[in-house]
């Protein structure tokens, strides 16, 4: 009885609990404490694993990288957060460490979500930082130039900013550098080569005239072609230029160098920076074809290096597009947009959608070579057309030496008359059938239709790369472009390789040929627009000579005359085909009179020479500058995975600094043009700032923004923000002239300071960011090598073209044995070296020469024992020291003291001190002048900017 009563009571209580309304879950009272206890350590203010943040309302509902929305109001079963905290799998349950949520806590969260996930505004314990409130994303300001009453040091506005900053920190500028130090500094800085002794002597005299002497030197240096070689190298570092592809195989890019030459030429001609930007993004529309090599400078996996399955190809395509977006954003905008490939940027206001919208601008770019379109290329094509006319004339003349065909149906009398006309014995036969080209000549006949029938082949289905029919005027009237229509017995089609339309498209080779659907048989019929008088048919299996199978060994050529087909030629009167016949010329000299044989031989030789020239012109200079096609459809990818596409996106600029977007149907070139115009717009807050900072950095070693490729929140704020904006505006005001920026900087008092040390100043500003002196730095690897060649008199000044080899091979995975001894082109400036990605030069690579694996906005300066060892003991140093010594002896003779003085003047632009001369004399007398030359090459004075 008691048990029954208890059971009844429990049933009543259970029904009461089920029927009673659930208590309302309050976010602040009930939900937030659960998040605080279990979630904030990994998904709070200081850390957001998987991109998920649960301490701020907007971020919590947005979700993380792996899923969509993490909390779906009203649907606990569809909310990933609920699924993860409820999981029975220890490997996937959240939190991964510590105690899991209790049953009551999970029930509270589920109830809250099912009830609508009410999260009141204004209750968050943390606030999101306004990522748009960042200095680099704000419009460029017009700062007031500081004018201090006690400033008699500044030469212009640039100096005023520096002087004011120094004073505010209790610092003063260093004394002005002596004239020789300034000359050596500015010459190395602008050209990468030291001044010669005569230039030094002249400037010392001219400097007495004052400022005009300095201006003349700067103008001379900026007009030198050496300037573009020096400053082009800076740019190539940023865009990671190399002559190989990188990655596992690292194969050669034999046509990458025209982009390098374009960069050097652009700097030499002071191409306006906004135009420089546009040319590198859409130069194919601006007459600067090689410039778009910028888009594809990065490493890339080639088709043969990736899996052939669709997912692997989609991933490789994403990787290649990612490199283009990274190159554009880092180089021109100073932003790491690529960080948003898998999720919204962790620091900057760049969403994943922004990233893929930028990708859509370049979604039609392929890593590939293409022919350069230039005035020179057009002239070469015009010359090829002129030469082709002569080839046609030669073919017409040679045709008269080809024996007339004598098909079996021709009566003996006609054959005898024909043979007498040609002085050919009746019994002789025409040359055997060739895979490359065959000519069937016959008595002229008027017709509108011609049929070529294959009766047998040497193997498989017959294949013809081009069927040509000539009228008496020597014109190929079979071409589809002239209205001739082709029909066939049946086709074996391989798209873009074997199609019926290729039988008369005017292009030769197996990749543009017709193939019959029948083994050993088939026919092609050509119908002309108007009646023609024809006398010759020319055909071949493969004019390029790569294939000789599928060759018609028995055939008939017929014309429709009157109301019936008339046989014009066939294979019955041709010599049997042998292996040797495949090497025979299309015209046999045998059977011709001595006079005709001589004429034919001369014409054949001339034709071969002309065709070689035509081929060279047709194979114009190519450049690895991308091919452009219909853009891919771009989708937002979850976690950057091509196998998880979300909604499609259209081309659009970064939402933090613009609102420009394009319709999905926008054609490929217009997409890039729009992107280039937006980047190069004076209103873009980043473009001018980024380039002004790069120019400053390349002069002083460190930019006003130390992180030249990152103007985002992870970058370093500018040391002189007002000066940076003033320089950016000055760049725009000067019509984007980079050379004008050089003049402003190198003629300033800031640049003219000495490197004199000040212990008190160092206590305040050890890194010399405030520029209380000129910050000396070691010269780059290229400048050191080039300077040694200048001193030795061995420098080859030839510009442009394919690079010289630093290694015994041009591409591959390993085995790069360095070249040790150089001559000829190997003595050109190092910017012209064939740059193998991921392989540093054996000698000068130790001097922090980048390997082009990543963008190098600023070269680090390391100090290692290997640098001294390389620069003292390498074969290159020994050879250049010997050449340097020979040059000195040629100039001053055998007097040891004179030799020492001349060596110092050439290497260091000064005479040796009495002490230096005294120390050097016994070395030269005992060990020879080359030893002193090696010492000078290893001196800090030679290796550092004064």
Automatic annotation (TrEMBL):
<dbReference type="Pfam" id="PF07587">
    <property type="entry name" value="PSD1"/>
</dbReference>
<dbReference type="Pfam" id="PF07583">
    <property type="entry name" value="PSCyt2"/>
</dbReference>
<dbReference type="InterPro" id="IPR036909">
    <property type="entry name" value="Cyt_c-like_dom_sf"/>
</dbReference>
<dbReference type="InterPro" id="IPR011429">
    <property type="entry name" value="Cyt_c_Planctomycete-type"/>
</dbReference>
<keyword id="KW-0732">Signal</keyword>
<feature type="signal peptide">
    <location>
        <begin position="1"/>
        <end position="22"/>
    </location>
</feature>
<dbReference type="GO" id="GO:0020037">
    <property type="term" value="F:heme binding"/>
</dbReference>
<protein>
    <submittedName>
        <fullName>Planctomycete cytochrome C</fullName>
    </submittedName>
</protein>
<dbReference type="Pfam" id="PF07635">
    <property type="entry name" value="PSCyt1"/>
</dbReference>
<feature type="domain" description="Cytochrome C Planctomycete-type">
    <location>
        <begin position="39"/>
        <end position="98"/>
    </location>
</feature>
<dbReference type="InterPro" id="IPR022655">
    <property type="entry name" value="DUF1553"/>
</dbReference>
<feature type="domain" description="DUF1553">
    <location>
        <begin position="671"/>
        <end position="921"/>
    </location>
</feature>
<dbReference type="InterPro" id="IPR011444">
    <property type="entry name" value="DUF1549"/>
</dbReference>
<feature type="domain" description="DUF1549">
    <location>
        <begin position="158"/>
        <end position="366"/>
    </location>
</feature>
<dbReference type="GO" id="GO:0009055">
    <property type="term" value="F:electron transfer activity"/>
</dbReference>
């Amino acid at each position: 009885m008691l048990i029954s009563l208890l059971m009844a009571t429990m049933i009543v209580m259970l029904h009461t609990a089920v029927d009673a309304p659930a208590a309302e879950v309050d976010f602040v009272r009930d939900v937030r404490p659960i998040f605080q206890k279990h979630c904030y350590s990994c998904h709070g203010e200081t850390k957001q694993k998987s991109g998920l943040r649960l301490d701020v309302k907007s971020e919590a509902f947005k979700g993380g990288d792996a899923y969509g929305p993490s909390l779906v109001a009203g649907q606990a079963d569809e909310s990933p957060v609920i699924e993860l905290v409820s999981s029975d799998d220890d490997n996937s349950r959240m939190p991964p460490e510590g105690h899991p949520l209790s049953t009551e806590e999970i029930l509270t969260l589920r109830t809250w979500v099912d009830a609508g996930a009410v999260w009141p505004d204004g209750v968050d314990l943390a606030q999101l930082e306004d990522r748009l409130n960042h200095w680099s994303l704000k419009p460029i300001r017009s700062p007031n130039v500081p004018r201090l009453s006690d400033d008699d040091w500044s030469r212009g506005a640039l100096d005023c900013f520096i002087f004011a900053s120094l004073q505010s920190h209790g610092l003063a500028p260093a004394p002005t550098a002596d004239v020789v130090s300034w000359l050596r500094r500015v010459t190395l800085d602008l050209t990468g080569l030291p001044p010669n002794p005569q230039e030094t002597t002249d400037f010392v005299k001219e400097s007495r005239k004052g400022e005009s002497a300095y201006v003349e030197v700067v103008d001379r240096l900026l007009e030198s072609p050496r300037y573009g070689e020096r400053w082009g190298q800076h740019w190539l570092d940023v865009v990671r230029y190399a002559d190989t592809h990188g990655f596992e195989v690292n194969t050669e890019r034999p046509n990458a160098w025209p982009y390098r030459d374009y960069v050097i030429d652009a700097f030499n001609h002071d191409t306006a920076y906004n135009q420089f930007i546009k040319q590198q993004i859409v130069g194919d529309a601006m007459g600067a074809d090689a410039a778009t090599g910028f888009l594809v400078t990065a490493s890339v996996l080639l088709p043969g290096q990736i899996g052939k399955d669709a997912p692997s190809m989609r991933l490789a395509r994403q990787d290649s597009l990612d490199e283009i977006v990274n190159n554009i954003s880092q180089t021109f905008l100073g932003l790491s947009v690529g960080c948003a490939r898998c999720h919204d940027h962790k620091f900057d206001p760049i969403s994943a959608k922004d990233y893929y919208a930028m990708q859509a601008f370049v979604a039609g770019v392929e890593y590939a070579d293409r022919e350069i379109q230039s005035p020179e290329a057009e002239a070469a094509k015009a010359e090829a057309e002129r030469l082709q006319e002569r080839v046609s004339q030669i073919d017409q003349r040679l045709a008269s030496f080809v024996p007339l065909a004598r098909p079996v149906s021709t009566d003996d009398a006609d054959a005898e008359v024909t043979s007498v006309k040609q002085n050919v014995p009746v019994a002789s036969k025409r040359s055997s059938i060739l895979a490359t080209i065959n000519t069937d000549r016959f008595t002229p006949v008027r017709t509108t239709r011609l049929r070529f029938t294959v009766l047998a082949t040497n193997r498989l289905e017959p294949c013809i790369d081009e069927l040509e029919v000539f009228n008496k005027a020597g014109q190929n009237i079979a071409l589809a472009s002239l209205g001739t229509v082709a029909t066939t017995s049946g086709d074996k089609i391989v798209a873009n390789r074997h199609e019926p339309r290729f039988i008369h498209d005017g292009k030769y080779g197996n990749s543009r040929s017709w193939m019959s659907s029948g083994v050993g048989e088939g026919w092609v019929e050509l119908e002309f627009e108007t009646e023609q008088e024809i006398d010759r048919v020319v055909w071949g299996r493969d004019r390029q000579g790569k294939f000789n199978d599928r060759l018609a060994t028995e055939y008939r050529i017929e014309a429709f005359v009157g109301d019936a087909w008339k046989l014009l030629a066939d294979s019955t009167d041709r010599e049997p085909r042998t292996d040797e016949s495949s090497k025979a010329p299309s015209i046999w000299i045998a059977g011709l009179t001595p006079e005709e044989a001589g004429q034919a031989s001369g014409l054949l030789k001339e034709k071969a020479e002309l065709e070689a020239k035509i081929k060279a012109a047709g194979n114009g200079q190519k450049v690895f500058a991308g091919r452009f096609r219909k853009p891919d459809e771009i989708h937002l990818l979850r976690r950057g995975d091509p196998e998880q596409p979300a909604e499609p996106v259209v081309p659009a600029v970064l939402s933090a600094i613009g609102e420009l977007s394009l319709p999905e149907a926008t054609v490929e070139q217009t997409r890039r043009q729009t992107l280039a115009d937006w980047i190069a717009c004076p209103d873009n807050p980043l473009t001018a700032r980024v380039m002004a900072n790069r120019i400053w950095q390349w002069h002083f070693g460190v930019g006003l923004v130390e992180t030249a490729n990152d103007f985002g929140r992870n970058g370093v704020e500018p040391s002189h923000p007002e000066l940076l904006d003033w320089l950016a505006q000055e760049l725009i005001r000067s019509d984007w002239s980079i050379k004008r920026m050089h003049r402003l900087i190198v003629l300033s008092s800031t640049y003219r300071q000495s490197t004199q040390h000040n212990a008190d100043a160092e206590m305040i500003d050890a890194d010399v960011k405030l520029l209380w002196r000129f910050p000396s730095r070691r010269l780059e690897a290229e400048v050191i090598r080039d300077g040694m060649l200048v001193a030795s008199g061995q420098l080859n000044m030839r510009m442009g073209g394919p690079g010289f080899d630093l290694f015994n091979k041009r591409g591959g995975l390993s085995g790069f044995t360095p070249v040790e001894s150089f001559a000829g082109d190997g003595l050109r400036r190092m910017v012209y070296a064939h740059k193998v990605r991921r392989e540093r030069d054996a000698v000068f690579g130790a001097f922090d020469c980048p390997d082009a694996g990543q963008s190098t906005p600023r070269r680090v300066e390391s100090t290692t024992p290997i640098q001294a060892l390389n620069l003292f003991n390498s074969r290159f140093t020994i050879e250049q020291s010997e050449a340097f010594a020979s040059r000195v002896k040629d100039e001053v003779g055998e007097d040891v003291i004179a030799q020492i003085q001349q060596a110092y003047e050439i290497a260091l632009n000064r005479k040796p001190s009495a002490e230096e001369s005294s120390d050097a004399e016994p070395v030269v007398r005992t060990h020879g002048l080359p030893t002193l030359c090696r010492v000078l090459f290893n001196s800090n004075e030679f290796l550092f900017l004064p």
